[in-house]
Specification:
InterPro entries: AB_hydrolase_4_sf, AB_hydrolase_fold, Hydrolase_4. By secondary structure, the chain is an alpha/beta fold. It has three helices and five strands; from the N terminus they run E-E-E-H-E-H-E-H. Helices cover 25% and strands 21% of the residues.
Length: 122
Amino acid sequence: RQLYTVRDGGTIALDWLLAFDLEDADEIISKDSSTPLLVVVPGLTSDSDAAYAKHLVHSMARKGWNVVVSNHRGLGGVSITSDCLYNGGWTEDVREVINYLHRKYPKAPMFCVGTSIGANIL
């Protein structure tokens, strides 16, 4: 789990499953990695603990992808740390997370999938 702080002080939990986590390796993602990266944006009240999210994450990691679930503010066991609350019309958090990941891993092809309201946010 990585706690990411957005510009207004809000906190978003980024829950990672890396392809090599399934191989019991002790590694981190290199900034030069070209392994595909999948960003998952859950539904309205879901987070990385939802059964469908776990299934998607594990399926893609088994195929050799690095996967991160971008949990919404206040979900995934993370407290609210700013005056801004999550809502289905707010796209700035996902934009900020995607831009951050793109800057951090510029050589990794990035794909995003949203479920339910997460698809609308994307």
